[in-house]
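User: Study the fold:
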Amino acid sequence: MDLAQITAFLAPFLGSLLGKAGTAAAEAAGEFGEAAWDHAVQLWQRLGGHIAERPAAQEAAEDVAEHPDSEGARSALAWQLEKLLAGDPALRDDIARLWQQGVAAGTTVTTVIASGHRSAAVGGNVHGTIFTGDGPSPAEKNE
């Protein structure tokens, strides 16, 4: 179970889950899909109370809710989750089971990050060539 993936999955939903965002739950479900929203709710129902009991974890979750694209905020929350789950094997097993259910159902989101000058990120399959340089593509050369 990759806590960074779980945190990245939850990030866009945390504002609604924590009641911090101006967007309603229905809007979150509409943007990411009903199944993804339901999966995020299930994970949060199991995690939220435990996170609320730990001030550092709660602060990390609030930071992610305010800045869902921040890699630093997500890393801080993943670290807090790691510490929380290390101390509660039953919770860790429940979260692992819920995560696997989401993966099996296809409701989890794959996060792909392109890092570096002219890098490319692919979250699925690529057929063909990706050009990231200054030169013309093969199609342009044939013109």
In short: The first helix runs from residue 3 to 17.
